[in-house]
């Protein structure tokens, strides 16, 4: 009985990183997309342009969606 408990505890201990390599790459890509969206939103001239009113918020939301995908994607276990 005690041996079974030790075996199950050894199986539960998984060393390594929480996310896989692809998760971190997607997270970095999402941060870059969000920054691009904020750069598109910046500026003081022509505040009612298509880029600032429509395109930039869509890019920012797409970046946040990519961040959620990066968190929720299950890494492949070998």
TrEMBL record:
The chain crosses the membrane at residues 21-41, 53-72. Keywords: Membrane, Transmembrane, Transmembrane helix. It comes from the Bacteria. The keyword Membrane applies. InterPro entries: DUF3098. Pfam families: DUF3098. This is DUF3098 domain-containing protein. It comes from Albibacterium profundi.
């Amino acid at each position: 009985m005690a041996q079974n408990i030790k075996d199950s505890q050894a199986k539960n201990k998984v060393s390594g990183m929480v996310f896989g390599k692809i998760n971190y790459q997607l997270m970095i890509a999402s941060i870059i997309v969000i920054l691009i969206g904020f750069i598109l939103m910046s500026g003081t001239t022509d505040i009612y342009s298509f880029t600032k009113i429509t395109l930039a918020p869509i890019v920012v939301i797409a970046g946040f969606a990519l961040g959620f995908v990066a968190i929720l994607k299950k890494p492949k276990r070998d």
